[in-house]
Specification:
The complex is a heterodimer of chains A (314) and B (264). Chain A is of the alpha/beta class and 314 residues long. Chain A is built from ten helices and 15 strands. Chain A is elongated, with a radius of gyration of 24 Å. In chain B, helix 6 runs antiparallel to helix 12 and helix 7 packs across helix 8. The chains are: A alpha/beta (314), B mainly alpha (264). At the A-B interface, helix 2 of A face helix 1, helix 4 and helix 5 of B.
């Protein structure tokens, strides 16, 4: 199988161009343009209802775009008569029939794509379901169904893999395993696109982020660049003489908010705050730096585009 | 395409409900026919001389193709046929299926072929067993397969199963909702013929005779029974076969074509 660059076209690239989907008067996805590259894990983030699943379904040809195009390796996915060797996908762990055994479910899918039956055993072992192969899917937990869905995605050994909310229902061990799997697949030069509504799930998994809100692109950049967008680091200082310290910090152009004996400082690093306090002979009880979190950056960025917000009328 | 046929075959047998439904309905339909023969033997003495006179073949051959048995066969075939399509939609499996095989019409064509073959085998087994066993029970009052019209009746009963299974699939592919599909296909097969059961107008009679249940009635009639059942606008043998063919074709086309442009 060819992976990476060849003959000018990149085999595993997912390309969205002005991708749009409207349902009546509701616009689910609006003019989305971005490129998902091989060799890295791309996190596809957005609040609930941002249009992530609709976008993934358009990539897989399950939903017809109202406008624009979605291509994989330069072709619309539906140009392929059989899909599993091109794109492996886990869209919804519930997209199975409960009466069938895990093994039979995979047998049928493998057979439809001319994948040898032995491969079914391989992927079942890989996702840790070999002991449950003969059991009916109806009796599976959500975590087991996620593993089965991942097995389906791996079945055709594809260059492109798409996962919609794969962490839902997984236990901590499962989350770690899935992260390792995604890193390994990307390391093998494959394109790995993973959607999530939780930033924390992406922090240790993704190299690159595509963030959408209300169907529109908000950010398309590396994880590091995204991190730098977020809130500036703040420092919490607790001191018996807050007024004196606040004045001294303000003199150095820091922004200070005070509450009793606790100051929250931005614009100065902890080291400099300690030096100022030492120079002013002010005693400190606490000096803590709060690193900018991806979570905070994500919340800040998508604050204007959250579709369903609790406790607030819009 | 052979791979898709094999995949659909795996899907069909790997659901316990499919083959349990086939097995149970087959046994019930056969049992109904055998029981009809036993009932005739038990009630023989109470039949009028005229009934006794025409018993062979009018009543004896009817024991192999009783209405309740036909009802069981049609209901089982249309429901199980519908489930092969609508079960994928209601569970969401259809998205997994079409993501794996973007050539959607090929998937549905393979499903149509597998379901048709399975139900043809099922229908043949049920109708052959019902004929042989019910006539064996009647002993001297039974008819052999060589009796004029007998082979046609067995063949029509065998074909009735795939016709109804295809109708279930077609309705399922258009409606995609389990309960609504079962109610609609059941109404189409059993209720509509009753609503059209009038011989006042020619066109109503034609519509009535074009329904699968009516066509089956006509095809399982012997010449002697047809002579008794004199009506206006009598249904024809060829018309009844044509009805089977048209229903099957329309249902198969609906099943295959309805999936192409649909959002899932």
């Amino acid at each position: 199988m060819r992976r990476g660059r060849g003959n000018g076209t990149v085999v595993g690239v997912i390309q969205l161009h002005e991708l749009t989907k409207r349902y009546g008067r509701t616009t689910a996805v609006n003019g989305l343009t971005c490129t998902v590259r091989p060799g890295q894990v791309t996190g596809f983030l957005g609040p609930n209802g941002a249009g992530k699943s609709t976008t993934l379904r358009m990539i897989l040809g399950l939903t017809e775009p109202t406008g624009g195009t979605a291509t994989v390796g330069g072709h619309p996915f539906r140009a392929h008569a059989r899909g599993l060797r091109h794109v492996g996908a886990l869209l919804d762990a519930g997209d199975v029939q409960g009466g069938r055994s895990a093994r039979a479910h995979l047998w049928a899918l493998a057979r439809s794509n001319r994948i040898p039956r032995a491969r079914v055993g391989e992927v079942l072992r890989e996702v840790g379901l070999d002991s449950a192969a003969r059991r009916r899917i109806g009796g599976f937990s959500l975590g087991m169904r996620q593993r089965l869905g991942i097995a389906v995605a791996l079945l055709g050994d594809p260059a492109v893999l798409v996962f919609d909310e794969p962490f839902n229902g997984l236990d901590p061990e499962g989350v770690l395993w899935v992260r390792g799997l995604f890193r390994r697949l990307a390391g093998e030069g494959r394109t790995v696109l993973v959607s999530s509504h939780l930033m924390s799930e992406m922090a240790n998994t993704a190299d690159h982020l595509v963030v959408i809100g209300r169907g529109e692109l908000i950010a398309d950049e590396s994880l590091a660049a995204f991190e730098a967008r977020g809130s500036h680091p703040s420092v919490t200082v607790r001191t018996p003489s807050p007024a004196g310290l606040a004045a001294a910090l303000a003199a150095e152009h820091a922004v200070v908010t005070a509450q009793d004996q606790t100051l929250t400082v931005t614009g100065l690093r902890a080291q400099r705050i300690g030096e100022i306090a030492f120079e002013q002979r002010i005693m400190l009880h606490e000096l803590t730096t709060h690193a900018p979190s991806l979570e905070a950056a994500f919340m800040e960025l998508t604050a204007g585009s959250v579709e369903y917000q609790a406790g607030e009328t819009r | 395409m052979t791979d898709l046929l094999a995949a659909e075959w795996i899907k069909l047998w790997s659901l316990r409900s499919t083959w349990l439904g086939l097995l149970c309905s087959a046994l019930i339909a056969i049992a109904i026919c055998v029981n009809a023969s036993f009932a005739d033997l038990a009630n023989w003495a109470s039949y009028s001389p005229m009934t006794q006179e025409v018993f062979v073949p009018v009543w004896s051959i009817r024991d192999a193709f009783t209405d309740p048995a036909g009802l069981v066969l049609m209901l089982a075939a249309s429901s199980i046929g519908a489930i092969t399509v609508v079960g994928e939609y209601s569970s969401g499996l259809i998205r997994t299926t079409f993501a794996a095989v973007p050539a959607r019409r090929q998937v549905m064509a393979a499903k149509v072929m597998v379901v048709t073959a399975v139900f043809l085998a099922y229908g043949t087994a049920v109708s052959a067993a019902a004929f042989v066993l019910s006539q064996a029970v009647l002993g001297g009052k039974g008819v052999s397969i060589g009796y004029p019209g007998a082979i046609r009746a067995v063949a029509a009963s065998a074909v009735l199963a795939p016709v109804c299974a295809l109708i279930g699939m077609g309705v399922g592919a258009l409606i995609r909702h389990t309960a609504t599909t079962i109610v609609t296909s059941t109404a189409l097969l059993f209720l509509v013929p009753r609503l059209l059961d009038s011989r006042r107008y020619h066109w109503v009679a034609v519509l009535h005779d074009a329904m699968p249940a009516s066509a089956w009635d006509r095809l399982t009639e012997t010449a002697a029974e047809t002579a008794v059942n004199m009506t206006r606008f009598p249904p024809t043998i060829s018309g009844s076969w044509a009805a089977f063919a048209l229903w099957s074709l329309a249902a198969a086309v609906a099943t295959v074509l309805s999936v192409h442009r649909r959002d899932l």
